[in-house]
Specification:
single chain, alpha/beta, Ubiquitin-like (UB roll), Rossmann fold, 3 domains, six-stranded mixed beta sheet, 6 helices, 19 strands, binds FE2/S2 (inorganic) cluster
Length: 350
């Protein structure tokens, strides 16, 4: 590998904003950030003070030279690193201990054109965008953006249902009565409309899969998990991945064919679904908790990724606790239809 090779480093700030920079294998992350005019926390720049200490969530790197006062062996073993010293060996995802504003940066704005509208069912619609500058947008699978609803002064948050490498980007929307985006998509929206959004944001994104994973989707919470599956189709996981998809009525079930397709191309990927409505024709009726036992959780040796309404997040958390199993990690994204999502931290190490 040439040290001149360049890698992508995602800098995740405490306010949920993510910026991406290019970093060569022979420069430190701090140098690359400086070139990108992003002021990550720095003081000594010499591996002595620990001010820049960050958590590396994915990727490999050379930690460089530093003293124990700046970074202990235990911290280094837990994934902490010093951006003023580290040089990348691969793409990296770092959690930076400051807000984006403190680093004199912020969410990027992107403009796009509506390229497609797909009405999956009475309750669910998907829209696709062509970006004016596709190469200017990077995101991690699972992240979301804030979209200005055309013709209104409202903004709504949606997770990408497309993968980071796909040219077109797409979003899955549950239609709610009186919802700003619902009203637009079911009424005025036309192919060719102009759309603006900011992002990417959020800490609900796929980490390196170093153990089995359990993906849990409630309704249109399937979107970020589809984005993660698209990434896995490109970079096959070395461990089994199981997805459980729960919805309220049969009409809410979308993308089962997409999941079937992923089950054919992603090694070790399987899925199941359930519908809460007793009148459903689905094989499993009830909630996803009915499909989770200690073997689904690999007795704790599992990374859990859950995107769904707040009640589902709490129900799953309570169910897992009642089973007496502690997952290695539990990442979740709560959403409520038609609300603006505040960027925040959602990852919890168990
Ligand atoms: Fe002092 Fe990195 S800035 S250790």
């Amino acid at each position: 590998m040439s040290s001149r090779m360049s890698f992508q480093v995602a800098l995740n700030f405490e306010d949920g904003i993510t910026r991406f920079i290019e970093c060569r294998g022979d420069e430190t992350v701090a140098e690359a950030s400086y070139k990108a005019r992003i002021n990550i926390p720095l003081d000594c720049r010499d591996g002595a003070c620990g001010t820049c200490k960050s958590l590396c969530e994915t990727g490999s790197y050379d930690g460089g030279d530093y003293i124990d006062e700046a970074l202990t062996d235990d911290e280094a073993a837990a994934g902490y690193c010093l951006p003023c010293q580290m040089t990348p060996h691969s793409d990296l995802v770092l959690r930076i201990p400051s807000s984006s504003a403190a680093a004199k940066t912020g969410a990027a704005t992107h403009t796009a054109t509506v390229a497609g509208l797909t009405r999956h069912s009475a309750t669910t619609i998907e829209f696709t965008l062509d970006l004016d500058e596709r190469d200017a947008l990077d995101f991690l699978p699972g992240q979301y953006v804030n979209i200005a609803v055309p013709g209104t002064d409202q903004t709504r948050s949606y997770s990408f249902s497309s993968g980071p490498a796909q040219r077109q980007i797409s979003f899955l929307v549950r239609i709610v009565d009186g919802g700003a985006m619902s009203g637009y998509l079911t009424g005025r929206a036309r192919v060719g409309d102009r759309v603006e959004f900011t992002g990417p944001m959020g800490s609900f994104y796929l980490r390196d899969l170093t153990r089995p994973a359990l993906l849990l989707a409630g309704g249109t919470g399937l979107a970020p998990l589809l984005s993660m599956l698209e990434r896995m189709a490109q970079q096959p996981p070395a461990h089994p991945v199981h997805l459980l998809y729960g919805v309220t009525t049969d009409q809410d079930l979308v993308h089962l064919d997409t999941l079937e397709d992923y089950a054919k191309v992603i090694p070790g990927f399987s899925f199941d679904h359930c519908v809460a409505d007793p009148a459903s024709t689905a094989r499993n009726k009830g909630f996803v908790t009915g499909l989770i036992d200690s073997s689904t959780l690999h007795d704790g040796d599992v990374d859990v990724y859950l995107c769904g309404p707040p009640a589902m997040v709490e129900a799953v958390r309570g169910h897992i606790t009642a089973l007496g199993v502690t997952p290695a990690s539990f990442h979740h994204e709560k959403f409520t239809p038609a609300t603006v999502r505040e960027p925040r931290q959602t990852a919890e190490a168990a």
